[in-house]
Amino acid sequence: MIRIVDIGMNHETAPVEARELLSFGKQDRDKAFHDIQAIKNIKESLLLSTCNRVEILFTTEREKEAKESVITFLSHVSSIARGELRPLLYIYNDQEAIRHIFRVGASLDSMMVGEPQILGQVKDAYRIAVDNKSSSVIINRLMHRTFSLAKRIRTETGIAGSAVSISFAAVELAKKIFGDLTGKGVLLIGAGEMAELAATYLLNNNVAQMLVTNRTFSRAVELAEQFQGSAISFDETESQLLRVDIIITSTASPEPIISFDQVRRIMKGRKNRPLFFIDIAVPRNVESRVNEIGNVFVYDIDDLKGIIDDNVGKRQAEAMKAERMVDEEVLKFSAWLRTLKVVPTIRELQEKCERIYQGELQKTLSGFKDLAPEQRNSVERMAKSITKKLLNDPIVFLKGKGEKGCQDFYLDIARKLFNLDGDTRERDE
Fold this sequence. Notes:
By secondary structure, the chain is an alpha/beta fold. The protein has three domains: 3-156, Beta Polymerase, domain 2 (2-Layer Sandwich), CATH 3.30.460.30; 166-308, Rossmann fold; 343-417. The chain has 16 helices and ten strands. A six-stranded parallel β-sheet has the order 7-6-5-8-9-10. Strands 2-3-1-4 form a four-stranded antiparallel β-sheet, with helices on both faces. The longest helix is centred in the last third of the chain and has 39 residues, at 301-339.
């Protein structure tokens, strides 16, 4: 019997140091796929490796042996002793493995519920599995159901509808102020991780201009190139405030780098066009009094955290709806999986009937030497049609019992009724 197994570690079961040892970069992923497929007793497999998780999804008919081999493989690759590695791993079987991969694809198992990146990473892992010919009927169908369910969850729930990261919340606030960010100019002051994330979200909202400045100019150039923007020197910051609409600050400066007097001066030159500051630095980069200037909006990290805390609660409520959708899909997929058990019996039944049909047909036709070709064809078609119609009801019945969970009993009866295991000698009636 085919079993589905998922073995891995994530941000909840293992520290980052362990996940780093077990991560697979682009260069060694193909080799890892080859090594996994070479493991005895593994039929299909998929390897998912991200910054927060590493897991191997596979099918097998010898569950215990395959599990031990996969754990040995992970131990060898990571250089972590089996005894130390095992407590860091989760192992899911059958329905739990199906549920797990559905939850991963829907971002219900992510560090930040509802984050969009994981679905793309699962799709990439599946594409690589297909390229390496390590996926087949079961994993192919499981992945397609995963992608379909993830899309439904995002469409029918609000799991991804609220900002839950500092950078994303900052961009969502900008959209509320301006309505539409299309055509707006942006200045990033600082080039750290949060600025990079904010740049990603802004680019997805069709901003017209992206300027980047940093005390280390080379880093500003690097980030500007990454996001099709332009780097400016740190000394040009005040003059550029005249041109842009949104400023995101995230430097490590211990003192404010944007002062009240600076902004008051440039607002005259802007003819009071709205200016939006998102200060995600600690300590703050924008002097607090700047918020007192007309048509200037300043939000610091505490403002954003308040929004995020509210939205995390909203996402958790929406996640409950998503979990129900996952449970429904698990039941459907498990029912389909059970129908696979009937395939060998159906195939044997069809082959046996084909042998009987061919044998009886030849015996019958041998007694009618003078039949015209079209007459012989008519007899063959009739015999084949009778065979197919007689088989149809037993096949439909067996598949239906698989969906109702009592398939093993009826498979046993069917094999005995049609003597598929050769326990009794076949006799011509």
